[in-house]
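[step 3/7] inverse_fold.run input=structure_tokens len=161
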């Protein structure tokens, strides 16, 4: 069953450099259906939903490892099998000498209209991945963006407006 974020809620979590959860706010814990003990120290893919194309996480990790931020629509799986969609902004955190010390994700409720666009695209990306691996999925994303004449960032941000 799908569950929904509330309009004004923020789901926040932090990870170490390997993507292990080091912090989650109340709403993060509540939505996930796991206890705080279960979440802390667990890899963030504990919430991974099988409908998510691997390419989205590849892009995410490439960006944040290069010290940049990324926005992404993510479908997450709760402990009991329910799922929820988020619009995530993931950023690296730095110490005083600008060394990365972890990552931070803040998620808002996605625009329903955005998901109407994203869901079929993710499905096509996943089908491409099953056919020809992540390279095939990447090719399809590039073609989709090229057709629209936008970058990934422009595409994602415009959907949430
Ligand atoms: C700060 C941060 C937050 C993340 N949040 C999620 C999330 O909510 N759901 C998710 O599936 N993956 C999230 N990830 C990505 C996971 O680390 C992982 O790459 C992804 O679940 C794919 O798992 P896999 O590489 O084991 O297939 C997050 C990563 C970081 C650094």
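[step 3/7] decode complete -> sequence:
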């Amino acid at each position: 069953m799908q569950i929904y974020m509330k309009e004004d809620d923020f789901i926040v979590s932090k990870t170490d450099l390997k993507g292990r959860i080091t912090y989650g706010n109340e709403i993060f814990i509540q939505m996930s259906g796991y206890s705080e003990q279960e979440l802390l120290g667990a890899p963030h893919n504990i919430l991974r939903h099988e409908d998510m194309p691997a390419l989205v996480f590849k892009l995410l990790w490439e960006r944040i490892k290069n010290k940049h931020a990324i926005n992404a629509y993510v479908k997450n799986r709760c402990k009991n099998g329910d799922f929820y969609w988020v619009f995530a902004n993931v950023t690296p955190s730095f110490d005083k000498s600008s060394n990365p010390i972890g990552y931070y994700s803040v998620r808002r409720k996605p625009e329903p209209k955005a998901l109407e666009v994203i869901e079929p695209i993710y499905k096509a990306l996943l089908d491409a991945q099953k056919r020809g691996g992540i390279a095939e999925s990447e090719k399809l994303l590039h073609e989709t963006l090229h057709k629209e004449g936008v970058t990934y960032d422009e595409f994602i941000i415009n959907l949430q407006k």
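[step 4/7] annotate
Strands lie at 11-15, 21-24, 70-77, 83-94, 100-108.
The chain has a mean pLDDT of 98.
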